[in-house]
Specification:
The complex is a heterodimer.
Chain A (H helix, E strand, L loop, with lengths): L1 H39 L9 H46 L1 H16 L6 H8 L3 H25 L3 H9 L4 H39 L4 H10 L3 H34 L1
Helix pairs in contact in A: 2-3, 2-5, 2-7, 2-8, 2-9, 4-5, 5-7, 7-8, 7-9, 8-9
Chain B lengths: L5 E11 L4 E12 L4 E5 L6 H9 L6 E6 L2 E2 L7 E4 L11 H11 L4 H14 L15 H13 L5 E5 L7 H17 L3 E6 L2 H7 L2 E5 L6 E6 L14 H14 L19
Parallel strand pairs in B: 3-8, 3-9, 6-7, 7-8
Antiparallel strand pairs in B: 1-2, 1-4, 4-5, 9-10
Helix pairs in contact in B: 2-3, 2-4, 4-5, 6-7
């Protein structure tokens, strides 16, 4: 009993450290930043102090919230479409050796293109509205999902697949009971990458075209030399990205619990 | 009512590659009666596993036929139990769920399967480990789980492809005893592929000795020990005489080397 409580206490301490250590480093950096701006007297337009950014953030909060909702909505939509179509492409490519040979190298080649540079192209194709930005963000975040999912589908243990044949499992049963669980870790690592790529895609799109959204807010603040405003918007953007990332992590935990039975 | 017999008649297996034709199994015939434990013994890579995979319906038969329970093998069959060299457990499932996996896939009565699974888990000495996952188990415990899984659907034929060859010698001896204990309570026709002479003699009613590729059966030897077999029989003179005889068949004397001694030393593996 004593060893058990001792182990539990050690685990609690480790868990607390895992939170406190990075948080401590973050706070330390902010303090150093604040001190540096106070000591050097660097102009606020070049580098505002954390305190100045905080007060700007509070002042602009209602405005930022409105813009964050626009950006967030587009990000969620783009991520959803990218996840669904990425999985669909992966299933299609994994379904036959011929499709795999024909499509997979092209997919990898596409992955290499610096897609950010193509944002203006989407304006020509789809105009300056939200569909253009969402399509661009889907285009950017689709590949990590597709490639991770293809990788995962190919990773199912061959001997376990042979066992499935031996016990007369149907292809659908084998897919659901074996291939999907083997793929989940790969798929979710792809989705995590895609969740951050979707935010980047939407914001870049907003830089190019938008009249609302955090990308627009940043551009607008920049034109007014409102540096604290840019940082405040950046903070709001982080929250959007973090929220989506957290949803993916929670979905992964739920999926694992489900498959573990 | 199934009888669980196995009839293999002139079974051949030829692998065709773009440049080559490899004959893995060359005209093998044998018969297993209901409830008979047959070991197929041969050197590594001789095609004995191919023969077993053809019995399981996992490999096509190039020529000849295999009848299980009187019906020709055309593909996998739900009432055949199978064990591989690797335990092939689903890593995210518990011992109990792994054991129940074939029953669930085949849509069997789960309440009955659950009771049977519990019995089997107790028989192989895994009681108390039902909720553990494969990474928490030793290699021997994983293969015990695989034995239970092979038997949970109450098959009439049990096929085993070198199931203990990846285990250390001590665990392997324990597994052989566990397998005998369970097989003696639930008699199944069993085919057991191995390259361990002692394992074959300890477990089987009959040992079929196969040559190197292309595989043929060169000896069909009845093992005279009564059942249940205590582990101690492995120390008997008779046991070692049989082992020596089989070793002579597998390793024919090469030129320039003395013929194998009639009673060779203990370490067969």
């Amino acid at each position: 009993m004593t060893t058990r409580t001792a182990t539990a206490a050690a685990e609690d301490r480790d868990a607390a450290l895992r939170v406190l250590l990075p948080a401590g480093v973050g706070i330390l950096v902010l303090c150093a930043w604040q001190a540096a701006t106070a000591i050097t007297g660097v102009p606020e337009v070049l580098l505002p102090s954390p305190a100045a950014i905080l007060s700007r953030l509070v002042a602009a909060a209602p405005d930022l919230l409105r813009h964050a909702l626009v950006t967030g909505g587009d990000v969620v939509l783009a991520f959803g479409i990218a996840a669904a179509s990425g999985i669909a492409i992966a299933l299609l490519i994994s379904a036959s050796a011929l499709l795999r040979e024909a499509l997979y190298p092209n997919l990898v080649l596409f992955q290499v293109i610096p897609k950010i540079a193509l944002a203006p192209l989407f304006v020509i194709w789809m105009g300056i509205g939200s569909p253009s930005r969402v399509t661009f963000a889907v285009f950017v975040s689709l590949f990590p999902v597709a490639i991770a999912c293809i990788e995962g589908l190919a990773r199912a243990d061959r001997q376990i697949l042979q066992l499935c044949r031996a016990i007369c499992a149907t292809p659908v049963q084998t897919f659901l009971a074996v291939r999907v669980p083997f793929t989940l870790p790969y798929l979710f690592s792809g989705l995590k990458v895609a969740s951050t790529m979707a935010v980047i895609g939407i914001v870049v799109g907003e830089f190019v075209t938008a009249r609302a959204g955090i990308g627009f807010f940043i551009l607008h603040a920049s034109s007014k030399a409102d540096t604290a405003g840019i940082f405040a918007a950046l903070f709001a953007l982080c929250l959007v990205g973090f929220a989506l990332y957290a949803v993916v992590v929670a979905a992964e935990a739920a999926a694992r619990r489900w498959w573990r039975g | 009512m199934t009888d669980g017999t196995i009839h293999a008649t002139h079974v051949r297996k030829i692998y065709e590659t773009r440049t080559d034709r490899i004959e893995a199994v060359a005209g093998v015939s044998f018969t297993a009666k209901k409830g008979e434990f047959i070991a197929i013994l041969g050197p590594s890579g001789c095609g004995k596993s191919t023969l077993l995979m053809m019995c399981a319906g996992l490999e096509t038969i190039t020529e000849g036929s295999i009848l299980l329970d009187g019906r020709p093998v055309t593909g996998p069959r739900p009432t055949t139990g199978i064990m591989f060299q690797d335990s092939t457990l689903l890593p995210w499932k518990t011992v109990l769920d792994n054991v129940l996996f074939p029953a669930k896939i085949q849509g069997r009565d789960m309440a009955k399967a659950r009771r049977h699974a519990q019995e089997l888990i107790e028989l192989v000495g895994l009681k108390g480990f039902e909720g553990k996952r494969p990474h928490e188990l030793s290699g021997g415990m994983r293969q015990r789980t695989a034995i239970c899984r092979a038997l949970v659907t109450d098959p009439d034929i049990l096929l085993m492809d070198e199931p203990f060859s990846a285990l250390d010698a001590i665990t392997r001896d324990e597994m052989n005893e566990a397998l005998l204990a369970i097989w003696e309570t639930q008699v199944k026709t069993a085919l057991f592929v191995t390259h361990s002479i002692r394992e074959a003699v300890f477990l089987a009613d009959r040992v079929l000795v196969m040559t190197r590729r292309p595989a043929r059966i060169v000896e069909d030897l009845a093992i005279p020990f009564a059942r249940p077999r205590p582990p101690g029989i492995q120390e008997s003179v008779e046991f070692n005489r049989i082992c020596g005889h089989l070793r002579g068949l597998i390793e024919p004397p090469r030129p320039g080397r003395a013929a194998p001694a009639p009673v060779p030393e203990m370490a067969a593996e």
